[in-house]
Every structure is written in structure tokens, then in C-alpha cells.
Amino acid sequence: MANRKIAMYEYRQIIYRLRQGQSIRAISRDTQFGRHKITEVKDLSIKYNWLLSDTELPSEELLSSIIENNLSTNNNSSRRKCAAFEDLIKQWVEQDVSAKLIHSNLQTHHNYLGGYDTVQRFIKDYKLSKPPKMTVPLHFEPSEAAQVDFGHGPKLFDQRVGKVVQTWYFVMTLCWSRHQYVELITHQDIETWLSCHQNAFDWFGGVVNKVIIDNPKCAITKACYNDPQVQRSYEALAQEYGFLVSACPPRDPQKKGRVESGVKYVKKNFQPLREFRSLQDANQQVKKWVLETAGNRIHGSTFEKPLSQFESIERNVLKPLPAVKPEIATWQKVSLYKDCHVRYQKSRYSAPYKLYDKELWLKSTPTMVTIYHQHKQVSIHTRSFTAGETKTHTEHLPPQAQFYFKCTPQWCLDKSKDIGSQCAFVVESLLTDPARDLLRQAQSLLKLETKYGATRLELACKRANSFNTQRYEAIAKILKNGLDYQSLNNTAAFDSLSPVYQGKGHYQRLGLSTSKH
Fold first, then answer.
1. Backbone angles phi, psi at 138, to 5 degrees
2. Is the pLDDT of residue 258 over 80?
3. Residue at which a domain ends, from 397, 431, 456
4. 226 and 277: one domain?
5. Model confidence over 143-202: pLDDT tens digits?
6. Is the pLDDT of residue 516 over 60?
7. Which of 346-355, 356-365, 482-491 has the lowest mean pLDDT?
8. Hey, is 62 helix, strand or coil?
9. Which structural domain range is residue 266 located in?
10. Residue 203, SS3?
């Protein structure tokens, strides 16, 4: 009783009993007020002549103003003890810091010696002194709007992935009839968000004019009172279906009361005391429950059955579904890495190397991934669902990289034979080195044809073979110095090696074909 706030009418009762001649002890026993408090009231009553029989009892308004300034109420005591920290406490309250943390911080850093209850009462009084945030009930016409939200669901076994997963409820509630679409999902990403909208519109058989949402990251990229930024993928779906996206102001859940109540109703009335074999089984059960139980209850606000209201009126005024069901497509900004690939959901997709450090947009559908730069398509790939997989188009790579990937060992062998047997012998020698990977040397050797021509390259290889040196640097120097035109006095070196070249042993050890094509 000591900490209970005493109402003004109770002070008047104490004064009345004192006027009737009751003792302080008797009043305390009958009313359960402390004798100290009654004594304070008696002294105040004597001061203002309230105990005189011919004096009118003070009004509650008068009592309030006098007692507030004279009696040691808990509120006054709390205010006095916290006065030195008043501005600091108010600042923390506005930042939603808890009373317990405020009390702890005051003790640790500001030498506050008061108790936790004192701080708690001060915070309570401060909050009560602020004008309350009043709301206005929202009214909607049939098909005008639907509200959407997520709610925490149970952990269930998902047959698709073969393990237990955390789930959430996706709930779309028609604002007029209160009929619902409910689905248990395993992700709160943009693809799931869009897919659930499609499923909901299919369930209702039509589209509302406006969808009211909170500010989930999968739908709103920047929450703002006046100009919220809608996720590009969600905005595209809204245009396809012809509905407006209406985001609630930040930290103002009253604007979305219908669906908030709907989520609570589902969690309290569908989930308890039910057994679910799997996520898929739970989704079958919840849809049946919506049609048989939730849809046929008498709603606490409309006093009508949601399903009956929907079937008889609202279904008929919904906008029709699109003639062709829109494909789910998500958009996001991506960056091209120095390896000429962008990252998307643990997979990599190539784009032209010249777009490094440029702003790119990636559009993902259930089957394809397309990359855009300045609204122009620059790359398209089949979508990968394997973590770590890389999708590469060779033409997206720098020229030197294209050449490297194009010029495989087999290609090098075939190309060298087009040039001549001497060149082919050098290339095979490089590719069959027992200790080193000399593919790049072979590729560089064949590129010399572009600068010097096939005839000179063949002669240079012949000269190198005559000295038994099958090295790129030696052949490049021969061509640079024009030594390929000089006559050879001794070709025995190459002739002695020609049976090796003519055989198939090196090709077979490389796993390469000896055919030209």
C-alpha cells in the first residue's frame, strides 16, 4: 500500500472521516492508508480549515493542486531524487532505453544513490505527462486494400531439403471482409515475398487496389514517412498486377492493425495443439483451417463471417488477374569483380570485362540470370542453383584470357601441323615436357605466326630443331634476328628426331588426338 498512488476522492474520504471525529488509527485500520499519510492529510486539513463542519469539503481539483505542492507523495519524492538527472533520463527514455539500464548507468557513471523503483516511477510519470498518440480508425471499401505481414512460426521438417527449418507465417488480410491468405514459408527474401503475393492473389481470384505493408527489407529499401523507397522487384510486380504499394510510416504499427491482429489470431488459434508431419503438411492444414474455421467465425470488428462477406460481395469487385501470369523476377545492384564475374546467391556469372567498376543491375528469374548496364542487356546465363558454380562466356574475358582458354593443347597441336612438321615437333616437345606445364609457351610460339607468317615460323622451328632447342625464346630470337633465312649445314639433328615426332606416343601420353581436326 505504501507505494500505491492515492486518488483525490480517497483524500476527500480521509478528510470526511476526520471531520466525523474518527481517530487516525481507526481510519488507518478501515481504509488501509498509513497513519503517517493520514497525519499529513490532517495537518493540511487544519491549515485550510477543512475540518470545520461549516466548511465545504474541497473539490478534487483543488485538492490535487494543494496536495501536489504540500504532501510527500511518491511522485514528488521520485521527482526530487531524480531532479539532478532529469534531462539525461528523459533523453534516454526517448531513445527507448530500458528503466533497468538507465538505473544501472546512473549508478555506475553518475554516482546516483537512489533505488530502481524511484527511477522507474520517474520514467512512468514522464511518459504519462506526454500527450498520447491518438489514432483514427481506418475504413475501407470492398477490394480497396489488403494488409500483409510476417509472423514467427514453428520449426518444421521441410521435405524439399530433408531437414528441420525455422518457418514464418505470411498473412494477407483483405481489409473489408477480413478474409485471409496464410502460408508458412522458410525465407523472408524478395523471391519468397513476391511468390507469396502471387499465391495470395490466386487464392482470392483477383487483385486489390492497394497493398498495405510495414517496412520489410525485402519490399522497402529505405523506410521514410514521406517518400519510402520501394524495392525495384516489388514495384515491378505491383505494376504487373496493377496494385499500389502503401508502406506504413516507420514505427507506426497502428496503421496496420488488421493484419497484425490476423497474425496473432493465426498463431493463437491455428498453431497450438496441432501436429505437423512437415512444412508441406502444415500448409495444407492452414489453408483448410482458413476456409473451415477462420473464415466462418464471427469477426470481432465486423460481426460478420469473413468468408461469407468475401464470397457474397468482395470477390466480385476484385480486379481480374493478369491474362498471362507474370514471371517472378528480382532485381539487385551488383558489382563486376576483377575476375570478370558478378556474385549472386553463391554462384558467379560473367559479364564483359570492360564493365569493371560500372553500375550493373542483375535480373533473376526462376530459370535465367540477366545483367544490364545503362538499361542494356550485356550478359545472360541459365540460372545456377549449385553453390560455388561459375557461369562463363569466353567473349566476356580480356583478349589474352580469351586466347588462353581458346588455345587448348589439342588446338595447339592441330594449329602447329597446319604450319608444318618442324613447328609441330616443337609444340609437341613443349606439351610433353615431363616436369613443367609449358602450354603458355606453345601458345606464344603459335602467336608468332601473326607477326612473321607461317613460312618463316616453320623455318625458324627447323633451325631450332637442328640445334635441338625447342624453346620459345630461342625461336623468337631467330625470327627477330632474321636467322631463319640462313642455310643450315647440319640437319641431322632434326632428322634423327623425326621418328619420335612421327610416332603417336607423345600424343597418347597427353590424351590428345593425332588427327588434324
1. -95, 140
2. no
3. 397
4. yes
5. 999 999 888 999 999 999 999 999 999 999 999 999 999 999 999 888 999 999 999 999
6. no
7. 482-491
8. helix
9. 145-317
10. helix
CA neighbor of 182 nearest in space, from 290, 259, 292, 273: 290
Kindly report whether the global pTM for this prediction surpasses the value 0.70.
no
Which of 258, 284, 317 represents a domain boundary (last residue)? 317
Provide the residue type at 170 as one letter: F
Residue 26 CA to residue 110 CA, distance in Å, equals 45
Do 59 and 200 share a structural domain?
no
Mean pLDDT of the 352-379 span = 92
Which range, 9-23, 53-67, 273-287, has the best average confidence (pLDDT)?
A: 273-287
361 in a domain, yes or no?
yes
Using alpha carbons, select from 318, 300, 206, 216 the residue that is nearest to residue 258: 300
Q: Are residues 205 and 291 in the same domain?
A: yes
Q: Could you give the number of structural domains in the chain?
A: 5
92 and 234, same domain (yes or no): no
DSSP state of 126: H
My answer on whether 160 and 206 are in the same domain is yes
Q: Are 241 and 150 in a shared domain?
A: yes
What is the DSSP annotation of 283-347?
HHHHHHHHHHTGGGS--TTT-S-HHHHIIIIIHHHSBPPPSSPPPP-EEEEE---TTSEEEETTE
Q: Is the domain of 255 the same as that of 370?
A: no
- Kindly state the helix (H) or strand (E) to which residue 182 belongs, with its residue range: strand 180-185
Quote the Cα angle for 491-492-496, to 5°.
Answer: 130
Q: What's the CATH number where 305 sits?
A: 3.30.420.10
For residues 236-253, one letter each, b for 16 or more C-beta atoms within 10 angstroms of the residue's C-beta and e for the rest, the string is bbbebbebebbbbeeeee
- Is 229 inside any structural domain? yes
Residue 515 lies in a domain: no
- CA gap 232, 53 in Å, rounded: 78
Q: How far apart, in whole angstroms, are the C-alpha atoms of residue 512 and residue 132? A: 83
| Helix 116-129 × helix 99-110 angle, to 10° | 120
Q: Is 39 within a domain?
A: yes
Domain co-membership, 100 together with 19: no
**What average pLDDT does the segment 347-354 reach?**
94
Residues 6+ apart with CB under 8 A from 32: 1
- Position 493 scores a pLDDT of 40
Q: How confident is the model over 32-86, as pLDDT tens digits?
A: 778 888 888 888 888 888 888 888 888 878 877 777 666 655 455 556 677 788 8
Going by C-beta distance under 8 Å and a sequence separation of 6 or more, which residues neighbour residue 303? none
Q: What is the mean pLDDT of the chain?
A: 84
